[in-house]
User: Fold these one by one.
Assistant:
Number 1:
Amino acid sequence: MRFGLRARVALAFGLLSLVIAGAVSGATYSAARWYLLNQREDSAITRAVLDSRATSAALASGLDPVEALDQIPSVGTSQPMLQVKGVWYTSGVTVPPDALPQSLLAVAARDGGAQQRTAIGDEEYLLVALQLPTGIYVEVFLLRDLDLILTIGGWLLVIQTMIAGLLGVLIGRYAFGRIIRPLFRLGAGARRIASGEFSTRIPLTKDPDLDPIAASFNGMAQSVQSRIQREQRFSANVSHELRSPLTAVVGTVDLLEKNVEQLPEREQRLIGTLQTQTARMHQMLIDLLEISRIGNDDPPLLESVDVETLCLDAVHVRNLPEDLVSGSAPVIRTDTRRFERIVGNLIDNANRHGGGVTAIRIEHNATVIPEVVRVCVEDDGPGIPPSEVEKLFEPFTRGVAAKETSGAGLGLAIAIEQSHLLGITLRVESADSGGARFVIEIPLIESDIIDELGGSDE
């Protein structure tokens, strides 16, 4: 599984924080342990020296070893021991004399004193041995309290290290969000431009690093918008200029058609061909004018409409049987004229290129959010090759099996542009019969559901 960029940045921040916090915690623990142990050793040696002097004075005053040890004040968990003439005396039984390391006693006898940390049983002790005129004085200090302090401190440092790693993840996620937010705005702007909103611009934030990127994006969007507007104006002007002479040609052809029976057979065939081509050119001009107006004319006029009624109207206009339409759906809000043009163009495309429309299915999917109404137009043709799907909705694109007289290839281009304007989805897929299925998906908004329940405000 590959993590996204946000997760990778957050994990990198967390790992870096964990490493830094771990290094600092380790150094802190080592320094604290070294300091506390040294402090404990210094205090233990100081006390052992004082206790040994008190013991030596008591022995010099004539007290026996047991009485001399009783003179030592009991502080903490230390245990004093005294060896006189090879016999050990002690005021406690925590550590027996035979458990004392012989190396410690040998060094103390040679050098006058020695200290050593050692484990006796399950506990760790600090042993301080001092040579007296009458024997050897040993005091045993339990290090349990120091170990407990170091253990608690170590676990606190571990917890703090883990918290630092978690905070690093959260900071990394937040920092990534702050850094990547301008890119999200660029992506949203690019998607809006791709959907046809060419006036989209990215607002400048007075950031010296981000504003040049936003300005470049806005310049690109302005250039794209200007170019498309020039193309639309050119198409509209050409179509308008051709419309007047074409109207005259159509009138002349109609006049000739009325008197075609008075002409020879050869001229009759020529007039028939001229009429077909003239009608085709006339429809092409109408389509070109509509393409040039999409996005520039009036905004969509939304109203509550019944999808089944619209599909039946499209079927009636083309003198097709009503049983082609099946299914039902809730009332939707859309632009009636534009939606009828989308459905009509899909039906015309099926009749011209797909062997005829075979079914117009209306489906309602209430299991998704938002709910979706689908209109599927199926034909009896050979289907759409995968290589042609991407360019199928481009202007003047026709399938490889299309005939020269079967249209100019503008119907699907108009349908896709109108669907973008209405905020619906238009796609093509393979039908169960082997032909093509064009699917219109209309998301239901909250107002649609209100209308269905009888709460329309119109």
Note: The first strand starts at residue 79 and ends at 84.
Number 2:
Amino acid sequence: MPENVSTLQFPPLSTGGAAPLYQQIVEAIRREVASGRMPALSPMPSFRALAAQLAVSLITVKRAYEELERDGLILRHQGLGTFVAPGGGHRSRAERRNAAIAALRSAVRAGREAGLEDRELVEILQRELVESQPPTAQKTGGQR
């Protein structure tokens, strides 16, 4: 297995979580690709290697990979392995961006329905932006 395959970072998986295990794997890989930690054409672990790493069944990993392949995020080549698809990170970032915009629109609607004024909504958003910055950015006052 190539060296960079083992760099995948997964949060702890939970059988009691809201999402099934395969979906937790899908989301973790989407995050890795969207963040740029897994650039295009990066090799993915084999089903067996990832199943062993995460202590899940081969079927769980297979299902996650099938969903990622269907979504165009990864490519599987018989005999060569599985790789991050070219442009996969852009698709994933675009999906996350669209989801964030939809969530903000929904929050604005909910705020207005709750009687908040635009000024209050902006103040709340600004406060959330400051509070959600990593500790190093808060210390330096840096913007992201």
Note: The radius of gyration is 19 Å.
Number 3:
Amino acid sequence: MKKAFTLVELIFVIVIIGVLSAVAIPQFSKLTDNAKISSELSTASSVQAALEAVHGEWVISSCDFTWGNNRPFSELNTDGYPSSLGESSTKPLNYLLKNSETANWTNTGSTYYGPASSTAKGTSHCKNGKPCVGKSWEYNNNTGEFKLIEP
């Protein structure tokens, strides 16, 4: 007697594979968005750490030091944080935010706002507390706070 799979068994296996692929394929499509979100959160964390490092050095050195790429302390404001973004000839915050000149940052007083995700390459799947197209980063040069704000 020859052993073989019956038609019912083959159909059952095909159905199981179909259900698994219907569940798995959408999860794989979210991997790119999750990677972009993680990348932007990591970058924001690095910027905040760099701001705190500059401020800490400013406090310890009593305003007599160089920071970044041999930037003079005079580019910092009276609170010890980079004071301008794309406005002056020195543009000190540009040394921390490499894309600030091309990313459409705006200024209102001591606060700067920039896009949380690229409209061309960013993620549009908005999650609460995660960066995406339509949300913004906020930098306050009085407090040195760099955070995500919801629209």
Note: The first helix runs from residue 7 to 60.
Number 4:
Amino acid sequence: MLAPRGVPISHTRADLFDAMVLSAVEHLQPRLGDRLAHVEFAVEDIPPVSHHGTGDFDYDSDVLDDNAVPLSRLYRAGLGDIREPLVVVYRRPLETRAIRPDDLSDLIHDVVVEQVARLLGSSPDEIDPPLD
């Protein structure tokens, strides 16, 4: 089925994922304001994986992983031409962990909160307090 651009049916899974990451960041903006002003966020389909052998994965503390599969990475000093802190969220690993679309949105939110907390030296509950 074909649909014209701009019609919701024409959005790809990648587009929807990007929108969920943006929504997670926007959710934190009112609370963190200027603390997020110079933080960049990006989405990559898959993480670069470097390992030396079976079960020997070379991750530093800025990689958020699940069972040795990177979900996100924090580049505190930026990457390439980006000189600001950068949070990269990996789409495919997160999609495979979500059973329903709502689960994916929640998982993305949790990953963004965790990485922002790491960057700011806070706990995730300080960054996004749970609802009571």
Note: The longest strand covers residues 69-75.
